[in-house]
Amino acid sequence: MRPSDVQRLTVAECVDRYAGMVRAKTSTGALSPKTAEVYVRDVVTFAALAGADRVLDDLTGEDVDEVLLGFAHKPDGRRRGAGGAVPGGGAVQSGASQARFRRSVSAFFKYAVVAGWVQLNPMQAVTVRPRERGGLRAQRRALTVEQAEGLLGAARGLAEAGPVVPGKRADQRTELRDGLVVLLLAAVGPRVSELTAANVEDFFVNGGTRYWRIFGKGGRTRDVPLPGPVVDVLDAYLAEGRGLLDRGREPKALLLSWRGRRLARGDVQAVIDRVLARVEPVRRRSVTPHGLRHTTATHLLAAATDMDAVRRVLGHADLSTLGRYRDELPGELEAAMRVHPLLGRVDGPRRG
Questions:
Q1: Nearest 5°: phi and psi at 256?
Q2: Could you tell me which residue ranges the Tyr recombinase domain spans (predicted)?
């Protein structure tokens, strides 16, 4: 294509056309609806940061650098109070969110070249590297043992209190449900989409053990055994809590809103925050649903749980993916060397 053939379209016009193309791919099965909406959301954010009225072909690598850095500093409302807070609210975007945004923008510009919206792909001139953006990432995502125990204790406390809460209408009592949400996220580490898609029939008993059949990415399913404390809260919710919320609209859904609808992805963070408010301040730290997934992986691996077993619990196809879900814990190397598989228990370091 000759430069003169390039269409002088605004960023907003190109993003609108690209979004239509991406959504159309869902009808052919080339993209899942959720993946398509992530791409669309990212390019809409790109337009807002780059300037919707600017001509797309006028953007340079330097302009895209500014957009990438602007996104990195953009407050993430899902991570209120987490490390890396910025003035004016929320925490900055995580490293994973920054990498995803960059991939979305790159895919957009590759299409723009083919569509004749730009002469050259400005992504080839981008100079901001992930390491430069990485310093904006919160230092920790996984909760420490003390923080996780505080959150789980608060969740179990809600369940033990039962559905009878003074001052609330019976059909708006969500305490049992909230406790179950946090326990499932922290103990099993599902993706938030897997949690909200769960149905009552997905929980079954085999050989005296309660399992959750989780429908994950790529059409893969996995049967995960549930710890006893989680089973106790699940049974209490099914016996007492779910019926209070059921309006007959979602007969299969496990988790219901007080309006009787299937709990939405965006509601899960609010549930976590309500449970966190019951944790004593010294053990309280803000965390996202994905942060609880990191917490599950981190502590299972730190406890020397078989890596392949952890992979299957989390629903990953490849062991190498676990590296992204593993955060370093204070003192874990020292603890590992004190109980060495070849030397037995070692009380402390030998001093020379």
A1: -120, 150
A2: 138-338
Instruction: Name the burial class of residue 146, with classes exposed (0-12), middle (13-18) and buried (19+) by CB atoms within 10 angstroms of its CB.
Output: exposed
* Strand-by-strand arrangement of the 221-225 sheet: 203-206, 209-215, 221-225
Q: Does 194 map to a domain?
A: yes
Cβ–Cβ under 8 Å, residues 235 and 245: no
CA distances from 91 to 5, 17, 147 (A): 43, 31, 19
Per-residue pLDDT tens for 7-26? 889 999 999 999 999 999 88
Query: Which domain CATH number covers 101?
Result: 1.10.150.130
Cβ 148 vs Cβ 285: under 8 Å: no
Q: What is the pLDDT of residues 126-156, one digit of tens each?
A: 776 554 444 434 444 788 889 999 999 999 9
Q: Could you give the number of structural domains in the chain?
A: 2
Task: Tell me whether residue 227 is exposed, middle or buried, using C-beta atoms within 10 angstroms of its C-beta: 0 to 12, 13 to 18, 19 or more.
Answer: exposed
pTM across the whole model: 0.60
**345 in a domain, yes or no?**
no
Active-site positions read: 191, 217, 290, 293, 316, 325
Residue 99, classed as helix, strand or coil, is: helix
According to DSSP, the β-strands at 209-215 and 203-206 are antiparallel
